[in-house]
Write a structure and sequence with these properties.
Elements (H helix, E strand, L loop, with lengths): L1 H21 L5 E7 L7 E9 L8 H25 L2 E9 L2 E10 L8 E8 L2 E9 H11 L3 E8 L1
Antiparallel strand pairs: 1-7, 2-6, 3-4, 5-6
Protein name: Flagellar protein FlgP
Organism: Pseudoalteromonas luteoviolacea DSM 6061
InterPro entries: FlgP (IPR007293)
């Protein structure tokens, strides 16, 4: 009886090994098609910077700094629209009384393909308007990473 049990184990192991060896015989060819969105939104953002608050010895230096800051603020607003905010909140409670309440916001991302629509001063505030056409972003993305959808699989 013990011999039959051992022979059964050997046959079962041989059968499993034989089946796993056959799986390398079956091969397949996969054809992909590219996926393109139906529509592309256009995002707009506005950045502001006060002229008087900028560092600089002359009004021209302050204006140049305000131009840079307003552009960076507009880019930050675009990043908020694309990637969202990361919020960290803390509250300290001592004796059922809130002692300290804090909120920290962070935005991180890469914006490619945005273009400046307008850059102008309104009183003592410098304003920059940006536009991000998601069709341009899609075209830039496709150039790097080609998203695919399985079109057909052929086994042979």
């Amino acid at each position: 009886m013990r011999k039959f049990y051992q022979i059964g184990k050997v046959l079962a192991a041989s059968f499993v090994l034989g089946l796993s060896g056959c799986s390398s015989i079956i091969d397949k060819h996969v054809e992909y098609s590219y996926v393109q969105p139906d529509s592309y939104p256009v995002l707009k953002a506005i950045g502001y910077a006060p002229l008087d608050a900028q560092p600089g010895a002359t009004n021209s230096e302050k204006m140049l700094m305000a131009i840079k800051v307003s552009k960076l603020e507009a880019y930050r607003e675009l990043a908020e629209q694309v990637y969202g905010h990361q919020l960290n909140a803390t509250t300290t409670v001592r004796g059922v009384i809130a002692q300290n309440d804090g909120l920290r916001s962070q935005v991180q991302g890469v914006i490619r393909g945005a273009r400046v629509l307008k850059s102008y001063a309104v009183g003592d505030i410098y304003t920059t308007e940006l536009e991000l056409d998601m069709k341009t972003v899609y075209d830039l993305y496709i150039g790097q990473v080609k998203p695919k959808k399985i079109q057909r699989v052929t086994y042979y």
